[in-house]
Specification:
It is built from twelve helices and nine strands.
Length: 322
């Protein structure tokens, strides 16, 4: 069956962006598909939304308040712009989730990125799933949904776990069941919050990994944790190398047992600036990426990267010219 595009009775998909010439980028036929209706106000139509709970409706973005319990504190602006471009073409594929505070006031439960991207895309209204929720239920839903579905960094996940434990009165076993993680995983995340602020910021900004952070937690002295963190960043230490340093007594005093006399990470035998100069010189010399990795007691290794067998032969010829 062929549907005339100009037929007002033709079905309209509320999830796709509509022409701006109609109210909020949508057609009148929408009222036949979702809860809500239109009324005139001067020369402009507006949506009147008496949505019942547990329904999906079209909500003007200006009526949706931000989620005060949003665990994510940083949004990648480039990724947000890409999502906005996708929404301009495809529309909102999945409704956001909100709770109703008043006749024309809603509060976001989940879908912060979709809401922000929709605003960037110029949408006047977006589809939303309306739920009933008190403050505690809203906090729990927002945190758990973000943990399960968003790409939170390790610190944001740890803070979310902590809030669920303290503000929602959950035990670690219950928390693990809610987020689909075992208790040891939850405990490992919570231990990250014991790290000094500098280290937490480094983990949040991806200067170190979760593996690095777990090794740093094993050191009791915060000053030594920061010292080793700075060395990890400066020397690009692997997780295995950091674990080795900690096992060998990094950060412990002589009274704390064998191996504790290992030199502090903040004072490498070869200064970091000199290592970097050496790397640059060798990289220029061989025309390939060269890494210099210091080890204990003045030892270390030099790594030369190559892209193919021919490239390896070229490097060997530089090392051993005929």
């Amino acid at each position: 069956m062929t549907v005339d595009k100009n037929d007002d009775k033709a079905p309209i998909n509320p999830l796709l962006p509509q022409p701006k010439r109609k109210m909020s980028g949508l057609g009148r036929g929408l009222s036949a598909l979702i809860e809500g209706s239109y009324e005139k106000k001067g020369d402009r139509e507006r949506i009147v939304v008496p949505h019942p709970a547990n329904s999906v409706g079209l909500i003007p973005v200006e009526q949706i308040e931000a989620n005060p319990y949003q665990p994510r504190t940083h949004f990648d602006q480039e990724a947000l712009a890409e999502l906005a471009d996708s929404i301009k073409i495809q529309g909102i594929i999945q409704p956001v989730t909100v709770r109703q505070l008043g006749p024309n006031t809603y509060q976001l439960i989940s879908g912060e990125r979709r809401l922000q991207a929709s605003k960037l895309a110029g949408l006047d209204a977006i589809p939303a799933y309306i739920r009933k929720a008190d403050d505690q239920q809203m906090l729990e839903m927002a945190l758990i949904e973000n943990i399960q579905r968003e790409n939170l960094n390790a610190i944001e996940i740890a803070l979310s776990y902590q809030r669920l434990l303290s503000e929602c009165a959950l035990r670690q076993e219950e928390l693990g069941e809610r987020v689909g993680k075992n208790r040891s995983t939850v405990t490992n995340y919570l231990r990250l919050l014991k790290l000094p602020p500098d280290v937490q910021v480094g983990l949040r900004d991806a200067e170190i990994t979760m593996g690095h952070a777990r090794a740093l937690v094993s050191i009791e002295d915060p000053k030594q944790q920061v010292a080793l963190y700075r060395r990890i960043v400066a020397e690009e230490l692997s997780v295995r190398r950091v674990e080795e340093l900690v096992r060998n007594g990094f950060g412990r005093t002589p009274a704390e047992g064998p191996g504790s006399a290992a030199r502090p990470a903040a004072e490498p035998v070869v200064p970091v600036a000199e290592l970097r100069r050496t790397e640059r010189h060798l990289t220029d010399r061989f025309g390939s990426r060269v890494q210099v990795r210091p080890g204990p007691k003045g030892s270390g290794e030099i790594k030369i990267a190559f892209d193919s067998v021919e490239d390896m032969q070229r490097i060997l010829h530089i090392l051993h010219p005929a």
